[in-house]
């Protein structure tokens, strides 16, 4: 069981990590749209490289404390019995709060309003399927990498997967409820209209549930509890 002090440290790490992740996603999207106007492919390339790279750096830096940065990953940890329900709830709240901080900071760094409601609608059957696929793949990569016993492989695998998933999924792989909610507050390249969010969240949770079942099937016994492996 996680001690209160340890849970506080983990929550702080999740908040800070998710804030930097969202700042990188949104900030690099803004920079890409300004540096490469009119070239959506190049913008996506710039955005995906920055996101994948920052994930590697953040996971390596914060993994000794906590480095999920994603409510779906945290809920799968709970489903595997690696953390308590209380710990999961606290970490998810920290992740969502961190995402909100990150998007405000990103907007301000580029001299935009701190909050601007996104108007980019992302919907359609293919896009929603892509979100389930992206999330399923991400969770499999996370927990499969943990099974290697080498902590550094998680950062490289996750960063590489997300950079690739920007391209092979039609949704550009949000795959993270905290990041999805935060991106409603920036009407920029990386934004998503609030009306598109409920379906995205539902498909992300579905992808996470399918991944949980596959992790149980493929990796039994389950990985050692996070508290013991960090």
TrEMBL record:
Location comes to: Endomembrane system
Q: Which residues form a coiled coil?
A: none
Q: Which UniProt keyword terms apply here? A: Membrane, Repeat, Transmembrane, Transmembrane helix, Transport
InterPro entries assigned to the protein according to its UniProt record, in alphabetical order: Aquaporin-like (IPR023271), Aquaporin_transptr (IPR034294), MIP (IPR000425)
Give the GO molecular function terms: water channel activity
Q: What is its main location?
A: membrane
The record's Pfam families line, in alphabetical order, gives: MIP (PF00230)
Question: How the protein sits in the membrane?
Answer: Multi-pass membrane protein
Repeat: is it a keyword of this entry? yes
An annotated GO BP = one-carbon compound transport
Keyword set includes Transport: yes
Which PANTHER family does its entry note? AQUAPORIN-8
Similarity-based family: Belongs to the MIP/aquaporin (TC 1.A.8) family.
Q: What is this protein called?
A: Aquaporin Z
Q: Which organism is it from?
A: Nocardioides simplex (Arthrobacter simplex)
